[in-house]
Backbone:
């Protein structure tokens, strides 16, 4: 724990990103305790009210109170990102290690599959999938749908990293010390790839949140949950921008900008940590 | 009798791929045969210049590279067909020391890792205390103080210390043979002697044979019993180290011996007038002796045929037509001339 504290002190970008994310979790926690999310449903107040003492962030055209909507939406957005990012990274790590370490036909198959999938615009495919299973779509199912198209990039980059370190002399020494392929992957390769995997994970979370918001803003997200993207969808649907209702579309966008900024800072900090040559650049 | 480790007609060609053509191929080893026995233990030096194929030979014998043609046999079994039990036995009996004493350490771990792993994986000790004891005694054997070594990261130790830990690692396993690929070429000259002394001690005190791969004739002369001189993937001379160095027969060996710097400013290098660099290493259809283009005693026959190894003395062989009165070695097996050390 103390070591982790020192690590943060030496990597201001990472700490900054963590503080932002923690701030958002704190907002959610305090909000749940003081305000609650029971008023995040339609008809909880008069429609189209600007921010006031009674309705801190105003209400939308369906009468949802927007502060509870925001409190409910922040964790949902983070959840989709974490879930889809984790699944995507797990698939990517397994495939990347299999392709990079064992090579051969498995490598050809995995590499070709990733290369074929990579240039297809994920959002187009996600729109098709999401609109097909629209009625079944919960937050978790949507995360899995996003993850199904989030593994290619991690696979490709992790494979490249594994290729570069699997031929190091210490891997050969490990083999002569009696280590099996399993030992070599987990005790020689994995530890050295940890910062890299962490950076890939953060990038994957960011990409997953972006894909999720995109689906939701098109109205293809889970219908029963007030996610941030869904709020933006309703704001567009009811013409909130034209009607000058900044309190409707503004807060979710601010939160999203902060989320992406935090993830970007963490990813960049990890990249600098994993790649010492970047530390002196710029 | 099956030999402990044997290369049989091994050819290794690099650069075979989709984009390569005939001229981009590099023949690192050509129809190379060498048998090594470990009983009684001996030190065999493999000497050659850069590109002579000595590292390729080591990697092929260790199973780290597959021969393009031919086979490597461990106790009579092709390396590619070892069962997993035989593979385990191979690791118990054959160990390795690499050239670069930094690359061989995983930067994530302290140096303890390379010593603890073989003990854990090969069950060399039955308890933690026994393992610790084993590590400490082994470190002392190679001349290191355990309290100054253990718990450090590789970058906190000198190249000499790191290489001695690698010697200790190989020694822990108590193999029959250690293949050492240029173990001292990246270590400070002042520390070379101590590491070479460690290696000789392995043979004298623990009965471990050594295959010492080097470009440096003088250190090879210091510690080894036998010597094989490689030139462009072929063995050009082999035999007892004293004979080879003091009375080189092959013109290339003479060039090597003549290139040893002497502490005498009036003594010129290259008495034979051979100073040209080797030609390109590509595999363009080459007939005749590979050394013919640099050889001072080149004859007409050298351009037409490749010389076989002639057994000039009971424990000597040279691949040169200067000795075609001597019987040619059948199947070019160098094992025949690399006997046990005298005495």
Residues:
């Amino acid at each position: 724990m103390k070591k982790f504290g020192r690590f943060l002190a030496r990597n201001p970008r990472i700490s900054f990103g963590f503080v932002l994310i923690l701030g958002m979790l704190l907002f959610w926690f305090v909000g749940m305790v003081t305000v609650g999310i029971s008023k995040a449903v339609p008809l909880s107040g008069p429609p189209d009210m600007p921010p006031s003492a009674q309705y801190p962030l105003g209400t939308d055209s369906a009468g949802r109170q927007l502060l509870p909507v925001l409190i409910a939406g922040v964790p949902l957005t983070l959840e989709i990102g974490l879930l889809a990012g984790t699944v995507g990274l797990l698939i990517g790590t397994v495939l990347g290690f299999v392709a990079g370490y064992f090579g051969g036909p498995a490598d050809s198959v995995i590499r070709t599959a990733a290369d074929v999938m990579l240039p297809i615009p994920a959002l187009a495919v996600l729109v098709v999938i999401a609109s097909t299973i629209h009625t079944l779509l919960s937050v978790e199912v949507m995360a899995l749908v996003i993850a199904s198209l989030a593994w290619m990039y991690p696979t490709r980059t992790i494979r490249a990293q594994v290729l570069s370190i699997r031929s190091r002399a210490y891997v050969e020494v490990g083999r002569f010390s009696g280590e099996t392929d399993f030992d070599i992957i987990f005790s020689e390769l994995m530890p050295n790839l940890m910062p890299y995997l962490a950076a890939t994970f953060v990038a994957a979370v960011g990409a997953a949140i972006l894909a999720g918001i995109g689906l939701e803003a098109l109205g293809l997200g889970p219908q029963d949950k007030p996610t941030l993207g869904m709020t933006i969808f309703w704001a567009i649907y009811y013409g909130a921008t034209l009607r000058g209702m900044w309190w409707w579309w503004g807060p979710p966008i601010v939160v999203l900008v902060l989320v992406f900024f935090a993830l970007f800072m963490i990813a960049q900090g990890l990249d600098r940590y994993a790649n010492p040559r970047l530390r002196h650049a710029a | 009798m099956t030999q402990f480790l044997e290369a049989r007609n091994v050819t290794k060609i690099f650069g075979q791929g989709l984009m390569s053509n005939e001229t981009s191929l590099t023949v690192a080893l050509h129809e190379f045969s060498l048998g090594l026995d470990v009983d009684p233990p001996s030190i065999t030096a493999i000497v050659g210049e850069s590109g002579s194929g000595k590292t390729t030979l080591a990697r092929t014998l260790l199973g780290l590279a597959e021969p393009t043609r031919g086979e490597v046999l461990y106790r009579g079994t092709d390396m590619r067909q070892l069962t997993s039990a035989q593979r385990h036995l191979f690791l118990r009996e054959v160990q390795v020391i690499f050239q670069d004493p930094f690359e061989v350490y995983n930067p994530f771990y302290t140096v303890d890792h390379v010593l603890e792993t073989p003990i854990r994986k090969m069950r060399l000790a039955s308890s933690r205390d026994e393992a610790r004891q084993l590590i400490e005694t082994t470190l002392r054997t190679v001349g290191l103080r355990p309290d100054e070594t253990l718990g450090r990261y590789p970058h906190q130790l000198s190249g000499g210390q790191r290489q001695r830990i690698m010697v200790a690692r190989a020694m822990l396993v108590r193999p029959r043979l250690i293949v050492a690929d240029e173990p001292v070429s990246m270590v400070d000259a002042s520390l070379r002697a101590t590491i070479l002394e460690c290696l000789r001690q392995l043979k004298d005190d623990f009965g471990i044979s050594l295959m010492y791969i080097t470009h440096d004739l003088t250190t090879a002369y210091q510690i080894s019993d036998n010597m094989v001189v490689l030139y462009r993937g072929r063995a050009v001379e082999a035999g007892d180290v004293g004979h080879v160095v003091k009375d080189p027969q092959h013109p290339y060996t003479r060039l090597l011996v003549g290139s040893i710097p002497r502490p005498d400013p009036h003594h010129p290098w290259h008495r034979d007038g051979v100073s040209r660099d080797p030609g390109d290493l590509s595999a363009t259809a080459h007939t005749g002796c590979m050394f013919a283009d640099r050889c001072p005693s080149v004859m007409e026959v050298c351009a037409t045929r490749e010389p076989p190894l002639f057994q000039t003395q009971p424990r000597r062989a040279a691949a040169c037509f200067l000795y075609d009165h001597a019987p040619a070695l059948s199947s070019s097996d160098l094992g025949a001339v690399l006997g046990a050390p005298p005495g």
Chain B touches chain A through 22 residues (CB under 8 Å).
